[in-house]
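Re: beginner question about structure tokens

> Can someone show what the tokenized structure looks like for a real chain? I only ever see the sequence side.

Sure, here's an example I had lying around. Input first:
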Amino acid sequence: MCDQTFMAATFGPCDSCSKASPLMNIYIKTEAINYCSFCVEMMACQGLQKGETLASLKKESENLKKKLEEERGKLNDVELHQMAEKVEAVAALSLKTRRVLKGHGNKVLCMDWCKDKRRLVSSSQEHGITLPCTWVMACAYAPSGCAVACGGLDNKCSVVPLSLDRNENLAAKKKSVAMHTNYVSGCSFTNSDMQLLTSSGDGTCALWDVESGQLLQSFHGHTADVLSLDLAPSETGNTFVSGGCDMKANVWDMRSGQNIQSFESHESDINCVKYYPSGDAFATASDDATCRFYDLRADREVAVYQKDSIIFGASSVDFSLSGRLLFSGYNDYTINIWDVLKGTRVSILFGHENRISRVRVSPDGTALCSASWDNSLRSHNVSHVDGKVHQGTEQVDSL
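And the corresponding structure tokens:
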């Protein structure tokens, strides 16, 4: 993502040749090793068959990828917008800004709703928790609402138990759970407080045991920074999706650590991934100024949300409760609302004075919260969505 890219350089003795060199952190199964570029190339050449070269293998890989896309194309019998031609258009929307939430002294990079729909956490600001890292890029509420996880440029993800006593020193109770070799870009609890998923600039995702801090499973498949992840919405689901600077969106099996599906149609960094409410599809937001919709059963992209007038990157996406609307935040300070089925833009929200970093719909669908680099969050009352009138905006008013 523009203006939000970080690089960590490591210099030291190579684990293979012992020479002091710039090092590349790579993984053999789950073991991290640090090799210089020469030793990495030598290792890659080991096991090549007679007549094989790295160049020939790369060419073969590209040919296989092209054949796979051709086979996918043969199954594309109809487009999503064609199927939706007879579907009634989305009724007029009425989204009003209910509160402007201030308190941060710098860019708000992340936020998450609590399941009780009355509280939210934004970066490290909830309960005034102080962290040693200036840029807290990821935060998440635990399912119970009794703890939050947060991480950033310190390469760690910590869990902090919450208390009703505002005088309690919560920072002293902070527990480091995850440790990556580069910045932590995203975090999410699984369906319990006991396991935590993280994504990182080191190109990996990882599953951790919160109590012991033990690495339960690592996920290797991205070739650049992983910027976002999202857990499948089913309570029994064992998959999650990730997106990153290699322009790929990968679907993972948490039990095996295997990459089970991969999608590569974006032309720039994928800043955000978000599952469709049913869990059968997901959306992405990218620096190429588009949002895209992928159907897991069809194993392909089925919709692109874009307009010629949109030239700035998309930073974040989330769905309405029914899945009919897609909310997307952009670097031009706006939030665009798309009709998921028809692929058309139905509304634009203004108000922020800097780029949008995160948009999140409340668990009951009655409110939308947006976080921005203008140091604030805005809660929007979603009073008319998907043709249904929602009551209960007290969740927003209580923030």
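Each token stands for a local structural state, so reading them left to right follows the chain. The chain has one domain: 80-397.
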